[in-house]
Amino acid sequence: MNMMMDMMKSMPAEMGMEMDMAMMQECIEACSAAAMAATMCADADSGEDMARGASMCSNMADVATTTMRMMMRPAGYDMGVMHSMMMACMAMGTACSAECRMHADMHEHCRICAMACDAMVAACDKMDKMMTAMPKS
What we know:
Elements: H1 3-10, H2 13-16, H3 21-46, H4 51-71, H5 79-101, H6 108-133
Helix pairs in contact: 3-4, 3-6, 4-5, 5-6
């Protein structure tokens, strides 16, 4: 059992809103991994005169981090807002992955970033589908 799952289980029941905590953890971890990969890719891109890639990766890291932090505060969930954040995170992840894939043959950091973005998009899509299927209160 890791710290994040312990923390989520310690939240009052009404805060969890019948969420699948394992799926939530998977999404949070995917957002965190994508944010780290994108931050490091942006730094590498800036040293390689790849301004668009650096900017795209920086934006990706910001959106992923914000989405992750919002997910860790279930007491403040507004499902409409969370759906919008998930959609924004998936759109940014898809765009960042596409940009990084254009450079993946020449730069390993771009390949790794694209893979992390793809994993995050898949986890966010799964989480978004679960949240939108939940009964409205």
